[in-house]
Amino acid sequence: MADAQISPRNIPDRLEGRGVRLLKSWEALLVVVAAAIFLGNSLASPYFLDPWNLSDATFNFTEKAMIAFAMALVIISGEIDLSVASIIAFASTAMGYAVQLGFDTPALVAIGLGVGLLCGTVNGLLITGLGLPSIVVTIGTMSLFRGLSFIVLGDQAFTGYPESFAWFGQGYVWWVFSFEFALFLLLAVIYGVLLHKTNFGRAVYAIGNNQTAALFSGVRVARVKFTLFLLTGLMAGLASICLTSRLGSTRPSIALGWELEIVTMVVLGGVNILGGSGTIPGVVLAALIMGMVTFGFGLLNVPGIVMSIFIGLLLISVIALPILWQRARRRLAH
Amino acid sequence: MRGFEKHLSAKTAAQMKRLKLVDPLLLQDTTTSRMKPAITLEGISKSFPGVRALSDVSLALYPGSVTALIGENGAGKSTLVKILTGIYQPDSGVIRVADEDVTFPTALSAARAGVTAIHQETVLFDELSVAENIFLGHAPRNRFGLIDWKKLNADAQALLQRAGADFDPTIRLRDLGIAKKHLVAIARALSVDAQVVIMDEPTAALSHKEIHELYALIERLKADGKAILFISHKFDEIFRIADRYTVFRDGTLVGEGLIADVSQDDLVRMMVGRAVGSVYPKKAVAIGEPVLAVSGYRHPTEFEDISFELRRGEILGFYGLVGAGRSEFMQSLIGITRPSAGAVRLDGEVLVIRSPAEAIRAGIVYVPEERGRQGAIIGMPIFQNVTLPSLSRTSRSGFLKLANEFALAREYTARLDLRAASLDQDVGTLSGGNQQKVVIAKWLATKPKVIILDEPTKGIDIGSKAAVHAFMSELASQGLSVIMVSSEIPEIMGMSDRVIVMREGRIAGRFDRAELTAEKLVRAAAGIETQVNGRAA
Amino acid sequence: MMAKLLLKNRELLLLAAIAVLVALIALRFPAFVTVANLAGVYNDTSILVILALGQMAVILTRCIDLSMAANLALCGMVAAMLNAAFPGLPIPLIILAAMALGALLGTINGALVWKLDIPPIVVTLGTLTIYRGLIFLLTDGKWINAHEMSDAFKALPRLELAGTPVLSWLSLLMIALMVLVMGRTPLGRAFYAVGGNPHAAVYTGIDVGRTRFFAYCLSGTLAGLSGYLWVSRYAVAYVDIAAGFELDIIAACVIGGISIAGGIGSVPGAVLGALFLGVIKNALPVINISPFAQMAISGTVIIIAVAVNARAERRKGRVILKKAEAV
């Protein structure tokens, strides 16, 4: 054991400086991937580097990324929330219904966020209160929440959102920077701080690594997990406001299949699907990569579904490659 | 009185067995013997990171004979069992079956070579039927290659009867109690035509009647010519059932021979080894006023009538056999499970503890026995492990202060003499002993009034053991109150001011340091009455 | 006593629930419970039944297969393309081809889980998008419509034998085969062992990874078969057929009492779980509830089912006190 030779009285805090740790990190790999895609895109299409085109491109990931931040925390804690896309649909339906009743923008925002929180509460109670497995519960609520939208809407759609409501999905804060992109950056910072700089974030890691040991160490496991499901609900509500505002209409099939894209984004960002590790910068990079791939392929007239093959391959290979690499190294060491 | 008789009869039985069955010369001189061992281990060594679990041990098991494997927890018994059953591979040494060198790279290969084990924690399948548990992996098939359930159930019934069980083989395993599950495990061992049967504390969960049925079964297995390795902490049953003994201590072989040639005291001496107390750094501490008072603690299935007081500066040992309910009681004390009745006072004030978080805040901390599962978070760095329960102190309004965390981690890891490359290293990369130091540092950093250490030196190397003991003694002398749960007699005797012995969920004896003997502890824990000391049980 | 038996046996409980459901419907709409109509409901649910059987095997081993619907769609498309390109190709050959392709796709999932130890949910999330994407690559997004398919291709599922369509017969055959596999082969029992207690399974000499691999092969093969059935029954093939159906399959399993934690579940359970969803789906239009309510109802049923199952599975605490030991 190497650890036996070092004098016990002065164990250094860290062996590697910040720079070395950054270089060795998953995020560094993602930066390289992102840079390569950026470069490839700019070479492949003359339209890619246009600021307005880039700005437009951000819309295809900002709403998903908002949820991905909260989802990252849920997955790091060892759980999963598959109901987020359905919460978007349900919240959007609620807002659309409120429009029919004559409510205006502030009320709509409150309703969107409120429905998100409510759905998160339902998930949280079922999972932490009754101790049910989150994957099954959220498959159930996924059907339930979207199903409620279908009951309300059938094959109809809600439209007629007030003009002021359009700003959330279509407005710009400054120059090419949309409200959604600004919100994405703000939330990245908030979730980065929450996960990496607070006691709460530390508890999330501890639970994901070893729930029993965390409980024995005085972490209030149920309370933390409940909060996490509230957060994914709230973020889904927020994303619902942005998406509804951007589309200007609500159909029950809104955001269909997003839950899998969001989970893919989180896993691509280096979050261990089994819990315990992952970072917010990783998720931010994964969001940018997925956004750029979609945009770049779009410019090249490659259909979205081909892009999804690429994302699927990326998802499996980014997890498989480190495993294969480690095995190869071990074999060489022998 | 009854216990004494039992003891006597056990001894006579052993002598009778020897006269009737086995010529000791034959057993002792195996090279020239006509009776070949069913399996031989020679020079087996096995190390884990930081721990040498077995070093150069040898063992021969003979057909028609029961060999008792005796040793404290951590002496290497379970490592040996895992090597015999193909779960672990030895670093060096030879396994020989019928004069041929063999290796057991998988559990299946060991089973095919005729070695089977009945484990302490029965490794069986709750959702499957009893019969299937017996035959999983080697079920009888019909001529189409399909599993023949009729024959399977009938065969299972027959095997259960041989094992002395009378229940229906088609019921699900989860509907059985622990004792009956054990019988199923035994029936499984019978179902593979094993030549070597390992019984790892087979009677730990059985009732008096069931134990006697087990003895009868073992006699039948012997008559069938099976070689049996019998692991037990209970001396009465060792003398009742075993023909030979092998004693392990700290991973080495310290004695072997015929049971008829030794006394119980001889075995205890071999097992415990060094003169008890001499290497333990127990300081004489002035015991202060009562700090913790527990009265009438009980739980529906785990323990009852637990009452005691713990004083300032005192180390109170909790001794008992594995599964006596000590850990379960301690965990209920810190709010993991809820007791059905009972009261706790800390410094005279009544406490209601509903979660570990509340226990920590009140000043009672528990260092759990299962270091990997309940203690350390091995995927996280040392400093984050140390500060986890103390985050409210190192942080400011919910935000982490890394400088404070490193300072706290530095202070406590240094006090425990931790060996590590850096405080940012994952705990999983440390040796068992150093992991344990991190875990203890974690709890001490909360500045508790009472610390409960559950098997604090289980599975760690001698050096780390000494460090933990020295530190425990130091803590007590500084006025901390310590409860130490341990199944190691020397540790209990060397470190405790007072000892409470638990057996089957109840307090079975209380001893002051002055009156402690290993024998009293063993007898109280095993429920053997003695003529000399009537306080046990 | 009866109530206790019901509570203990998940399959009986579910059967009772379906019976109550059907009875309630029958009170107002007796036409729903005619033999012909119920047989129709079963026929309509046949594909879900077959898929649920495959998913069950995977879930039993503590894994999950999210790619089943995508696998179905790809195999269905390939079957339709084969038929469109070579109208003379015998239908059984096409079915075999679809099943072989399904098995291959399942093998890929299984190999990734077994050999690379990638979490099953990640593997099948990835292959779900890849398999569906492949359909697009194959077809460029074009549909294969009824007129491009041969009559024999479309007719087989509808063909009636002894008054019952082949589709129903096929699903009954699969149920029978799965009863054999799960109940009477070492592999089937290994599924239970691996999911129930992987650690103990190793002691018993069962290779956990290999067992999971075969579970995926099985689910893939059944998805392949369902691919042909789906495409021929609805007489159309395109990229998005059965999109989102993977969750219906899992829902059928959960309702059928198959524990997502592995090791618990049965063929009758999976079948009944699928039928429960089938009855709801077919009953809604009859009792004048918008078919749009189906989703919310099945969501609610999933949650209730998992809560009921969790209650039944809750572990007993350790018994140390002798008097407390009941058995």
The biggest beta sheet of chain A reads: 2 strands, antiparallel
CATH fold-level label of the largest domain in chain A: ABC transporter involved in vitamin B12 uptake, BtuC
Number of strands of chain C: 2
Radius of gyration of chain A: 21 Å
The major β-sheet of chain C equals: 2 strands, antiparallel
Side by side, the strands of the main sheet of chain C go 1-2
Biggest interchain interface, per-side counts: A-C, 47 and 46 residues
Total number of domains of chain A: 2
List the secondary-structure elements of chain C in sequence, H or E: HHHHHHHEEHHHHHHH
CATH architecture of chain C: Orthogonal Bundle
Low-confidence stretches of chain C: none
Keywords (chain C): Cell membrane, Membrane, Transmembrane, Transmembrane helix
Membrane topology (chain C): Multi-pass membrane protein
Main location (chain C): membrane
Transmembrane segments (chain C): 45-61, 92-114, 121-139, 159-181, 213-231, 260-280, 292-312
Summarize the structure.
Chain C: The chain crosses the membrane at residues 45-61, 92-114, 121-139, 159-181, 213-231, 260-280, 292-312. The complex is a heterotrimer of chains A (334), B (537) and C (327). Chain B is an alpha/beta fold.
